[in-house]
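Thread amino acids onto this structure.
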C-alpha cells in the first residue's frame, strides 16, 4: 500500500481501498499487544493504552485533513468515530464475545464525561447551524470549550487509573509477552497505522468522486471506521477471547477519548497552522453522539452486558448510518 501511494502514485480509489485493507492486520496486532499488556496492568490501563495508541492515527488523520482544508471531513470523522466506537464496536464486542461482566464504576464515569462533552459541543454548534460554521468568531468560542474538555479528560483519566489494581503475576498465562515487548509492538503498529492514515486522507477526494458518495458520508462512516480499526479489532478480539471487561473498556475509552482529547487537541493545534477548526457539529452529528452515550449508559448500568444488548447497539449504529446517508453535504 505504501509503495503504491508514495512510490507508484497509484490512483486514489486503489490507494483508499489498499489503505483500508492494510489497517485490518494492524488492528489485530494492536489488539494482540494490548491484551498482553493488560495481563500486567489490568483491564482499565489496558483499555486506556489501546484507546490512546489507537486514537493517535485518528489525530493524525484530522490534522492531515485540516491541512487539506477539509474541516467538514474532520468534524464528520470525529463524530463518526465517537458513534461507531460506542455503538458498533461495543455492540460487536458484546454480541460476538457473548457478553459478560463489565467494570461499571469505570465505564459510568466515562459515559458521563462523554455526555458532558456532547453538551459542550452545543456551545459552538448551535450558532454554527446558521451562517458559516467555520467563521473565526466560532473558533474563538471553541477555544474555551476545548480547554474544558481537556480538563475533563485529565480528571477522568486520573480518577480511573488511580483505582487500578495490577493482576497477580502468578495468574498470568505462560505465553504472556513482557511489558516492554507489548509496548514496543503497540508503538510500532501505531506508527505504521499513521502512515496508512496519511495515504487514506490523501486519496479521499478521488475516492468520493469515483463512488459518487457525499463527502460527509465517506468521512462520518468510512473514514471513521477505518481510522478506528485498531480499537475495533482490539475490542472485538479481546471480547471474543472471553475478556468482555477489557473489550468494553477499549470501546468506551476510545469513544470518550475522541470527544474529550482528540477533538479539543485537534481544535487547538489547528490554530497553530492557521486553519482554526471550530467544533461546530451538524445537528445529525450532535444527535447521534448524544444517542450513543445514552445507549451505552443503558447497557452498562447493571454491570453486565448481554448478547441481545450488543445486537441492539448494532441496530442503533445502522440507524445512525441511514441518518448520515440521508443528510448529504452541507
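Threaded sequence (330 positions):
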Amino acid at each position: 500500500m505504501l509503495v503504491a501511494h508514495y512510490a507508484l502514485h497509484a490512483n486514489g480509489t486503489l490507494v483508499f481501498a489498499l489503505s483500508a485493507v492494510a489497517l485490518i492486520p494492524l488492528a489485530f496486532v494492536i489488539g494482540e499487544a494490548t491484551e498482553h499488556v493488560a495481563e500486567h496492568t489490568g483491564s482499565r490501563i489496558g483499555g486506556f493504552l489501546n484507546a490512546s495508541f489507537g486514537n493517535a492515527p485518528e489525530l493524525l488523520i484530522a490534522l492531515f485533513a485540516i491541512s487539506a482544508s477539509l474541516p467538514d471531513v474532520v468534524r464528520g470523522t470525529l463524530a463518526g468515530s465517537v458513534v461507531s466506537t460506542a455503538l458498533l464496536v461495543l455492540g460487536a464486542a458484546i454480541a460476538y464475545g457473548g457478553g459478560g461482566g463489565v467494570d461499571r464504576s469505570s465505564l459510568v464515569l466515562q459515559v458521563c464525561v462523554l455526555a458532558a462533552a456532547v453538551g459542550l459541543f452545543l456551545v459552538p454548534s448551535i450558532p454554527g447551524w446558521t451562517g458559516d460554521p467555520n467563521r473565526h468568531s466560532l473558533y474563538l468560542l471553541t477555544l474555551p470549550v476545548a480547554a474544558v474538555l481537556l480538563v475533563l479528560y485529565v480528571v477522568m483519566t486520573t480518577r480511573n487509573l488511580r483505582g487500578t489494581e495490577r493482576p497477580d503475576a502468578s495468574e498470568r498465562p505462560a505465553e504472556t509477552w513482557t511489558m516492554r515487548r507489548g509496548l514496543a509492538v503497540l508503538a510500532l503498529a501505531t506508527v505504521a497505522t499513521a502512515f496508512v492514515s496519511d495515504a487514506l486522507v490523501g486519496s479521499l477526494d478521488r475516492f468520493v468522486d469515483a463512488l459518487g458518495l457525499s463527502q460527509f458520508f465517506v468521512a462520518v462512516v468510512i473514514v471513521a471506521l477505518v481510522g478506528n480499526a485498531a480499537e475495533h479489532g482490539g475490542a472485538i478480539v479481546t471480547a471474543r477471547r472471553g475478556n468482555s471487561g477489557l473489550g468494553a473498556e477499549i470501546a468506551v475509552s476510545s469513544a470518550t477519548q475522541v470527544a474529550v482529547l482528540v477533538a479539543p487537541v485537534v481544535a487547538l493545534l489547528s490554530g497553530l497552522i492557521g486553519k482554526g477548526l471550530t467544533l461546530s457539529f451538524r445537528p445529525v452529528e450532535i444527535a447521534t453522539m448524544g444517542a450513543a452515550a445514552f445507549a451505552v449508559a443503558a447497557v452498562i448500568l447493571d454491570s453486565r452486558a448481554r448478547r441481545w444488548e450488543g445486537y441492539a447497539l448494532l441496530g442503533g449504529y445502522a440507524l445512525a448510518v441511514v441518518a448520515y446517508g440521508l443528510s448529504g453535504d452541507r
